[in-house]
Known about the structure:
By secondary structure, this protein is mainly alpha-helical. The chain is built from 14 helices and two strands.
Amino acid sequence: MTEDEVKATQRPARAREIAGRIFRHENAVLAIVLAVLIAVMGVVTKGLTVARANMINVLLQSSIRGVAAIGQSFVILTAGIDLSVGGVALFTAILGGSMTTLSPWLNSVGPPVSPYMVMPLMLLVGAGWGVANGSLTSRIGMPPLIVTLGMWEILKALAFRISGGEDMTNHPATLDFFGSHRVVGMPVPVIIFIVVAVVAYYVLQYTRFGRSVYATGGNPVSAWLSGINVKRIIIGAFTISGFFAGLSGFLILARTRSANMSTLVGLELDSIAAASIGGISLAGGRGNIIGVVIGALMMGVIKNAMSVMGVDPSTEGIVTGAIIIAAVAIDYIRRR
């Protein structure tokens, strides 16, 4: 066999080896699925979903929910769950809206407060509720499902107490910078989402806290025996989740310049779906932020396409639930 013939036989083998490496990489497969999903939805909607204006809208929707999904991922990586994400976002949005509104009968503090002062407060409040979730879970030993579900109900009731069921409207135009302003052609919420994803990725991959999060979710007993303060790590994960939920609440307030009791309904399920689709194992200890970003984009594409096609909300809920079940089933099959 000549040298050229040997090279000719080696090329297909190398191509198969490269293709195998790509398809074995979980994020690469997710990226391919996302691209196929965008193409299919574009064909089904006759190009409406792939129009530039609509794609920007998809990025906006995905960024707000994606920020919450990244926070949710920290909790899931510790083998927990945070069902209070939607309640925290709702409460912070109503709280911030009641402080910044220019309508005297809606403002809860009297004179309107600058959004630049309210934003840090909303983030701190969100983180505070996260500390409460983490403390009840780690210090007392209560199941995170029960703790966060109860917290969700409490926050929903407190939000109604503040708003009285009224829509928080008539907010200052300064909120537009965080909600609709563009920097180098990119909406500010999308830029914030990218920054959050980069920081979260670095924290999980290259810091001691990130490694401790994975260790806690993988095997809390082994983590404790190796010197990791498991309780502190769990509190930290819930604090991050609450912080990012508060940020989601601020972003939706800035984008719509309004807040009401239906603000970000279903955010907790969307965040869980984005994380699970992105490869974050609900058993804890496995997954990465890049997958979560792709998962959030996939959820955004699906929801946007259903909205463009005029699908009713009940069907949208069925699809979201089916996606969560399918993602969890795939995760369990893969682990077996």
